[in-house]
Amino acid sequence: MNKRNCLECLQLLNGRKDQKFCSDYCRNVYNNRLNEDATNEMRKINRILRKNRKILEFFHQNGKTSVSVFHLSEQGFNFHYFTNVYKTQKGTNYYFCYDQGYTKLAEDKYILVRKKDYVV
User: Fold this and answer.
1) 29-76 pLDDT per residue, tens
2) Closest Cα partner for 71 from 113, 112, 101, 109?
3) Tell me, what's the pLDDT at 118?
4) What global pTM score does this model have?
5) Nearest CA to 15 among 24, 26, 4?
6) Three-state SS across the chain?
7) Do 59 and 68 form a contact (C-beta atoms < 8 A)?
8) What backbone torsions phi and psi does residue 83 show, to the nearest 5 degrees?
C-alpha cells in the first residue's frame, strides 16, 4: 500500500484512498493559501462596490433622486464598478451596486433609483 501524506502538514494519512488531508483545519489552511490572491482581489473590488452603494444610498432619499457627477465623485464614487446592468425596453441602461442604481440623466446629472423585485 502506498504511503500518503497530508498536503498541508505532511502527516501520514490513514483511511480512505482518496483522502488528501488529515483534518478539516489542514484542508482549510491549504485551500485558503491557494485562493489567497483571488480572495484579496475580490475583497478589494467588494470594498469599492460597498462604498459605491453607500454613496448612492446616502444621496437617494425616497423615490427617484437626481445628483450631479461632481457630488458623486467628491464622495469617492467609482463609476467603473457596479454589480449589474439593467436595460429597459426603451434602451436605457441602469447600473446597480447591489440594490442601489443610477442612470445618466443629462451631461452632468444622474438619476438614482432603488432596485425593484422584478429587476433581475
Assistant:
1) 999 888 877 777 888 999 999 999 999 999 987 666 889 999 999 999
2) 109
3) 47
4) 0.68
5) 4
6) CCCCECCCCCCECCCCCCCCCCCHHHHHHHHHHHCHHHHHHHHHHHHHHHHHHHHHHHHCCCCCEEEEHHHHHHCCCCCCCCCEEEECCCCCEEEEECCEEEEECCCCEEEEEECCCCCC
7) no
8) -85, -35
